[in-house]
Amino acid sequence: MTQKDITFVADFLTEHFNEAPELYNRKGKYFNVERVGQYLKDEDDDLVSPPNTEGNQWFNFLKDSTHLKESPLLFPYYPEKSLHFVKRQMEGVIDQCLQKPADVIGKSVHQAVCMSLYKISQSEDSTPQLFKLPFLWNDKTSNLHYVLFTMLENSVSKIHILRRHTDTSRSVSNGILAVEFGNFLNNSINESSDSRCYSCLDAHFYDDETVTVVLKESVQQEGKERVLAQLPLS
User: Fold this and answer.
1) What is the pLDDT of residues 174-184, one digit of tens each?
2) Are 208 and 227 in contact (CB under 8 A)?
3) Rounded Cα gap, residues 42 and 53, in angstroms
4) 3-state SS, residue 138
5) Residue 8 has pLDDT above 70, yes or no
6) What are the residue boundaries of the Anaphase-promoting complex subunit 4 C-terminal half WD40 domain, all occurrences included (predicted)?
7) DSSP, res 112
8) Between the CA of residue 24 and those of 19, 20, 46, 120, 193, what are the distances in Å?
9) How many Å apart are CA 234 and CA 210, to the nearest integer?
10) How do 158-165 and 176-180 pair as beta strands?
């Protein structure tokens, strides 16, 4: 070590570990701790060396503001406590804020209908992902909920549309249906059914009457076509 290093360590010890007689009655706190580390201790005890807030612009601003001084929107400041204490206090407030909505929403949700989309073998170690692209849409004019999704495996050329009324006591015709794209973009009836088969890459509602889909040519070759198509729900 150089003399400069030794001087640096000595200055640090002198500044931060002076005897503090006023702390003798506190168990294990006979010396001032390093000022950064005290904020990180997971304790509820007061800080040994609390910060000096004199001249702090934010505190002066709050002190001079009649409306903000007692505002419930401002999280209270604890200058004598560590960050762990403040974190626990904030988590408690957030949990309290979220608990009531969670209870109300949870009690209002119930199962309206159950549909079996597919079955898998019980012997499989891992469940394959067969459900893809779920997109939700709410038609406020007709009070209808829509869900767009695709099923992998043998139905990549199909997009499924699930429709439900927002009033769960009412039903709508064709609650679920599938639209198959297949080779509907063939230029002529002479093209083979396998030559230009399309699968769905993505699908979203464009508006209440139109669905936008991105299609991909399914043949295994370079330069696969991508098609952006807009389909009327009707």
Assistant:
1) 788 888 886 66
2) no
3) 22
4) strand
5) yes
6) 136-234
7) -
8) 9, 7, 15, 70, 90
9) 9
10) antiparallel
- Helix count and strand count (H, E) for the chain: 5, 7
**Structure tokens given for 113:** 């209908």
Q: Is the dihedral of CA 32, 36, 37, 40 positive or negative?
A: positive
Q: Are 29 and 17 in contact (CB under 8 A)?
A: no
Contact 200, 149 (CB under 8 A): no
Instruction: Judge whether residue 22 has pLDDT over 80.
Output: no
Distance CA 25, CA 149 (A): 68
Give the pair of three-digit tokens for residue 151: 């099923």
Percent composition of the chain: helix, strand, coil (DSSP 3-state, to 5)? 25, 25, 50
Contact between 134 and 147 under an 8 Å Cβ cutoff? The reply is yes
Q: What is the pTM for the complete model shown?
A: 0.51
Whether 206 and 137 have beta carbons less than 8 Å apart is answered as: no
Alpha-carbon gap, residue 226 to 201, rounded angstroms? 9
Indicate the residue type of 105. I
